[in-house]
TrEMBL record, chain A:
Protein name: Carbohydrate ABC transporter membrane protein 1, CUT1 family
Similarity remark: Belongs to the binding-protein-dependent transport system permease family.
Membrane-spanning parts: 26-45, 88-107, 119-139, 166-191, 212-237, 276-297
Membrane topology: Multi-pass membrane protein
Residue ranges of every copy of the ABC transmembrane type-1 domain listed in the record: 81-295
Species of the source: Thalassococcus halodurans
Record-linked PANTHER family: ABC TRANSPORTER PERMEASE PROTEIN, INNER MEMBRANE ABC TRANSPORTER PERMEASE PROTEIN YCJO
A single GO cellular-component term on record: plasma membrane
Keyword terms, alphabetized: Cell membrane, Membrane, Transmembrane, Transmembrane helix, Transport
SUPFAM superfamilies, sorted: MetI-like (SSF161098)
InterPro entries to which the protein is assigned, alphabetical: ABC_transporter_permease, MetI-like, MetI-like_sf
Gene Ontology biological-process entries: transmembrane transport
UniProtKB/TrEMBL annotation, chain B:
GO cellular component terms, A-Z: periplasmic space
Species, as recorded: Thalassococcus halodurans
Listed PANTHER family: ARABINOSE-BINDING PROTEIN-RELATED, BLR3389 PROTEIN
Source lineage: Bacteria, Pseudomonadati, Pseudomonadota, Alphaproteobacteria, Rhodobacterales
Keywords: Signal
Pfam families: SBP_bac_1 (PF01547)
Family of the protein in this entry: Belongs to the bacterial solute-binding protein 1 family.
Compartment(s) where it occurs, according to its Swiss-Prot or TrEMBL record: Periplasm
Keyword Nucleotide-binding recorded: no
Domain of life: Bacteria
InterPro entries: Bact_solute-bd_prot1, SBP
Annotated signal peptide: 1-21
Record protein name field: Carbohydrate ABC transporter substrate-binding protein, CUT1 family
Main subcellular location of this protein, as a coarse class: periplasm
Amino acid sequence: MATATHPDTSQPTGFIRRNRQKLAPWLFLAPGLLFFLFYVIAPIFQSFQISFYQWDGLGAKEWVGMQNYQELVTDRAFEVSLWNNLKWLLMYLLAIPAGLGIALFLNQTVTGIRLYKSLFFFPFVISQVVVGLVFTWFYDPTFGLLNTILESVGLSPINVLGDPKLATYGIIAAGLWPQIAYCMILYLTGLNAVDPEQIEAARLDGAKGLRMLWHVVLPQLAPATFIAFVVTIIGALRSFDLISIMTNGGPFGSTRVLSFYMFEKALSEYGFRMGYGAAISVVLFLIMLFFIAYFLWSMWRQEKGR
Amino acid sequence: MLTRLMTTAAAVALTAGAALAQDSNLTGTLKIFSDMSNPAPRAVMEDMAARFDAMHPNLTVELTVIDREAYKTQIRNFLSANPPDVANWYAANRMRPYISANLFEDISDLWAEPEIAENLASTKGAMTIDGKQWGVPYTYYQWGVYYREDIYKELGLSEPTNWDEFKANCQAILDSGKKCFTIGTKFLWTAGGWFDYLNMRTNGYDFHMALTNGEVAWTDDRVRQTFANWRELIDMGAFIDNHQSYSWQEALPFMVNGEAAAYLMGNFAVAPLREAGLSTDQLDFYQFPAINPDVALAEDAPTDTFHIPAGAQNKEAAREFLRFVVSADNQTKINAGDALGQLPVNAQSSVDDDEMLNQGFAMLSSNSPGGIAQFFDRDAPAEMASVAMEGFQEFMVFPDNLDDILGRLEQARGRIYK
């Protein structure tokens, strides 16, 4: 009887009518999915495909099979870029403990703490290009602040960005400045969610200092640590703007990373080797895929564990 | 970045008077894409478009000025997707990718016309690939040593005419506590200028061209001799320290402040040096002196050009525009000191009365018997240029790495020129 009054559940008249509930979410997702498919998924496969060709972006593509990859193996510039990527990955992780340290330090209630917090967060707000410029001037061998300081304490000046051994570390230091601020803000929000009762209980049991931090606070910060880890790894792998601004890959290519080298080979003024550039980006993609797969897997495991 | 100049009927009425006598059968639209985006070149380009428009009442000139750096990548897209009727580019090997992709129109017919053939002979070589001409030049400028005349006077030095004097001058400057040359190699190409000159003076123009065309090994002894000459200067400490951290502009203050006495550069360095306060008594120019007396002097003089894309719609108007650009009067006008401030390509044009331009013009027209090169990164294919210039920079900082660098360049040569 009631069925007659509900048009939705009455006589199914057509496919769309019958499956409205199932179709609606897909319809809402469709625009996003289409764009994702078109601008993210398809280019990934295109890159794979182009990496097997020799192509200057203008004329006809020429199939060369694995030749681009074989050249990569013998290419010293590629090797340097790969090592630099590794340096970025490892050094960048310093942002996590540093951010945690600052967050713990700032997690107190004194007058004006909001001001201090925002000052510490400031470097993350300004553009990477500005960060790069500021650090370039800081390192400048003739008038830079760094060398002025070094000279005033009697040390000989160093040209950080002009020395192939130091340049990459100099850029990473510049990158850490905003990255630490980012990790700090993640931890500050995490610290807000720490359960005061557990702290109280631990304190009654006599825990304090590092042991308190390690056994009571840090486990509760695990979600924040996870996110900090993810953004730092991704941030390290996509480092590009700082390198472009501070050294342009130099001196003599010693500060290149994979993304910058790919840009140079495929898209810069002297580049336009699309196939070779695509091969570099495939390698970078596989490295990123490794991390992303790990992150997705651990997130999935967490979800399941609940 | 994109701006459009649609010349209006009013502008036509204002300036048409003198030009009406010209043939004006041209109709339709003439689309020009230009990379002359810096203030002075931009004014020149807009003025040229307006004048040409005024000369041809039935033709509408549509000018699009694109940022000079962005243009270098955009040209690849618009030449094939949305070709204009006229486009800017550079001479020599820089044209080759577009010629092999059939994107530039062969305009040998224009070069066969006596007006152009006779007056533009000096740049014909730079516009020729595979025996055909692919565009016309509109301006070029000399390279050479710009130096602090007052410092030279103070130390009792004169412009060197050979390699020994060149080095003796440098030693005197070093003894006075200054550096001989400022340079900023962060963006590499400035080191290419030094290599061009040292190699052309050591081995001559023809060898230099053979090398940039990939016909000679980088490990050749003659190339090593060039680097040995270069090393003499490096070992003396002739160049400023930490040059790998500076762009060419950032290297200017060393010369302005008197910490370095000279700069091997293109004529475009004169304007910022004068703006920074160097007077005509303080700034002068000399031709890079001979090293090997047996080879003829040759110079770098990069040429900027106009081309007709193969897919252009209005090729007739485009050809007429190219004739207009290279005409003697227009060349005098656009290269004047208050416009581009460079050298006209037409032999019938007059050079603006400027100390540097006069010296440059005299040098290129009468004292460059060996030939005129474009510049390392225009004579060599782009990829070879980038690998090689990176090697030059490394050599200037670590001269001991020479064997390794040359081995790398030779390997690149084997791959790039097939």
